[in-house]
């Protein structure tokens, strides 16, 4: 989890439900703010930052659909998880809710286990999108790879010389412009002019959002106003700049602050790169294995060539049986990579232990393996706060059967070589570490000549189409598979090349892994 406790906005006109949710969330260590209607919710959101929003669907003054549409228009809340509460179980209602911008829904009466599971899951997914605000760290970090945001007074901005500041400056005059800039830029720092009343009014909100990742400087007009300066000490301000100083000194201090950020981030990345290179946990970028008439290929690309949360593992049971593990720790780059060795250690030790004892047949029932590993993860105080998706795929070339079990992973595509059809396997399951006694099904599938099975992580589906700025989704995988379904030896690299071309994807902003199993 993030260091700061998640702050959740709860909106409902029923006081009893508000108090029940508040009690549940506080039991998880989360901060809560309660609102009785949509207008109150908007007022709270104008002054505070929320990591997740829970709202009733039917309320006076403003219903839930109006509320979610309002939040989705704001750059700050464009990607914030929004969950509806309602006793209405009609499919058309939920489709409308999702189309209006909701991420999920929880039916009333609320079942506490399901409620907690969904809240935790959506919070973890929200952290995946943190780079929209935090700015992406790059391999080659220097001044021209980022920008400085200056929150100014539109009528009388304080002059900052662009000529002498060693990075680009983006001047913003409204909170909307600020949050939009944070999404679009890799930001070295934020400077707030104390005459920019719009920014000073929400300074607590700004520092709550960015203080862990982006330094905030305050440009002060009156150095003698000690009362004002003392009040600002409650916020996480990194540097105080004084307008009374000569312009050259102000610019020098700004450049020094940026250079310090560059040096710190370079040291950070160099140290982690060294650690990654020495790690025994390494996944090849391109992997291929032929077993009898089966061909298995894996494409694995960490984001920006830095180790991340995607991982895979191949376990040989005997000459006829193989187990493939494909996982995705929720998080990006180093934050996720630190937990990958722990997960792989659990997976290796558990499979080897039970294979040697021959107590369970993990090849026939991979769901049993997920149940065991889930119990281990839930008891691990560190791992239980870092969710992961996991797919277990076992292949038996003697019986020509493939068994699949899933913990929150994306549903794989299956091409039936006999009738030339494509479908998604109906295999789903709870994320690891959410519920201690979760049960996972095993789907056993006959695998005939010409069949193909495609597994992939969300680094592909959450890629953005440059033309419409929307995520390409599962449909992109389906489209590319449809175009190449009868190719005898389809490669992940070819699928990726066609996907990027057909869906206008210039770059991927997450780790991505694609595995193709085919029988020739």
TrEMBL record:
<feature type="domain" description="Response regulatory">
    <location>
        <begin position="7"/>
        <end position="123"/>
    </location>
</feature>
<dbReference type="Pfam" id="PF00072">
    <property type="entry name" value="Response_reg"/>
</dbReference>
<feature type="modified residue" description="4-aspartylphosphate">
    <location>
        <position position="56"/>
    </location>
</feature>
<dbReference type="GO" id="GO:0016791">
    <property type="term" value="F:phosphatase activity"/>
</dbReference>
<dbReference type="InterPro" id="IPR001789">
    <property type="entry name" value="Sig_transdc_resp-reg_receiver"/>
</dbReference>
<dbReference type="InterPro" id="IPR052016">
    <property type="entry name" value="Bact_Sigma-Reg"/>
</dbReference>
<keyword id="KW-0597">Phosphoprotein</keyword>
<dbReference type="InterPro" id="IPR011006">
    <property type="entry name" value="CheY-like_superfamily"/>
</dbReference>
<dbReference type="InterPro" id="IPR001932">
    <property type="entry name" value="PPM-type_phosphatase-like_dom"/>
</dbReference>
<dbReference type="GO" id="GO:0000160">
    <property type="term" value="P:phosphorelay signal transduction system"/>
</dbReference>
<protein>
    <submittedName>
        <fullName>Response regulator</fullName>
    </submittedName>
</protein>
<dbReference type="Pfam" id="PF07228">
    <property type="entry name" value="SpoIIE"/>
</dbReference>
<keyword id="KW-0378">Hydrolase</keyword>
<dbReference type="InterPro" id="IPR036457">
    <property type="entry name" value="PPM-type-like_dom_sf"/>
</dbReference>
């Amino acid at each position: 989890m993030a260091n700061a406790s998640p702050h959740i906005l709860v909106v409902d006109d029923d006081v009893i439900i508000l108090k029940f949710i508040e009690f549940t969330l506080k039991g998880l260590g989360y901060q809560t703010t309660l609102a009785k209607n949509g207008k109150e919710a908007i007022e709270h959101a104008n002054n505070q930052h929320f990591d997740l929003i829970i709202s009733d669907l039917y309320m006076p003054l403003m219903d839930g659909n109006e509320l979610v549409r309002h939040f989705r228009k704001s750059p700050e809340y464009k990607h914030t998880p929004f969950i509806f509460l309602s006793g209405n179980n009609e499919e058309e209602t939920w489709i409308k809710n999702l189309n209006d911008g909701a991420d999920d829904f929880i039916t009333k009466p609320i079942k506490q286990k399901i409620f907690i599971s969904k809240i935790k899951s959506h919070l973890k997914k929200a952290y995946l999108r943190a780079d929209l605000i935090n700015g992406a760290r790059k391999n080659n970090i220097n001044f021209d790879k980022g920008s400085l945001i200056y929150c100014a007074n539109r009528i009388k901005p304080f002059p900052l010389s662009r000529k002498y500041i060693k990075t680009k400056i983006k001047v913003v005059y409204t909170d909307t412009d600020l949050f939009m800039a944070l999404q679009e830029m890799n930001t070295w720092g934020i400077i707030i002019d104390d005459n920019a009343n719009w920014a000073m009014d929400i300074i607590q909100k700004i520092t709550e959002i960015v203080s862990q990742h982006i330094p905030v400087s305050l440009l002060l007009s009156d150095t003698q106003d000690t009362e004002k300066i003392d009040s600002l000490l409650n916020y996480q301000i990194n540097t105080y700049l004084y307008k009374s100083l000569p312009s050259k000194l102000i610019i020098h201090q700004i450049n020094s602050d940026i250079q310090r950020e560059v040096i710190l981030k370079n040291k950070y990345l160099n140290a982690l790169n060294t650690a990654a290179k020495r790690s025994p946990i390494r996944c090849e970028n391109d992997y291929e294995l032929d077993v009898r008439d089966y061909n298995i290929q894996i494409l694995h690309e960490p984001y920006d060539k830095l180790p991340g949360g995607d991982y895979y593992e191949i376990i040989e049971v005997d000459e006829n049986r193989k187990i493939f593990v494909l996982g995705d720790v929720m998080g990006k780059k180093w934050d996720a990579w630190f937990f990958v060795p722990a997960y792989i250690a659990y997976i290796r030790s558990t499979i080897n232990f039970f294979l040697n004892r021959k107590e369970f047949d993990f090849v026939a029932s991979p769901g049993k393996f997920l149940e065991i590993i889930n119990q281990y993860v839930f008891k691990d105080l560190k791992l239980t706060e870092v969710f992961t998706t996991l797919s277990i795929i076992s292949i038996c070339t003697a019986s020509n059967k493939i068994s699949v079990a899933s913990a929150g992973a994306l549903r794989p595509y299956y091409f039936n070589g006999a009738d030339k059809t494509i479908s998604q396997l109906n295999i789903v399951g709870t994320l690891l570490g959410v519920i201690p006694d979760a049960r996972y099904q095993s789907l056993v599938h006959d695998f005939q000549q010409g069949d193909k099975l495609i597994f992939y992580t969300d680094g592909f589906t959450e890629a953005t189409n440059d033309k419409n700025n929307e995520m390409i989704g599962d449909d992109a995988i389906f489209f590319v598979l449809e175009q190449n379904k009868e190719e005898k030896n389809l490669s992940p690299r070819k699928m990726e090349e066609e996907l990027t071309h057909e869906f206008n994807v210039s770059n991927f902003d997450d780790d991505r892994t694609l595995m193709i199993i085919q029988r020739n």
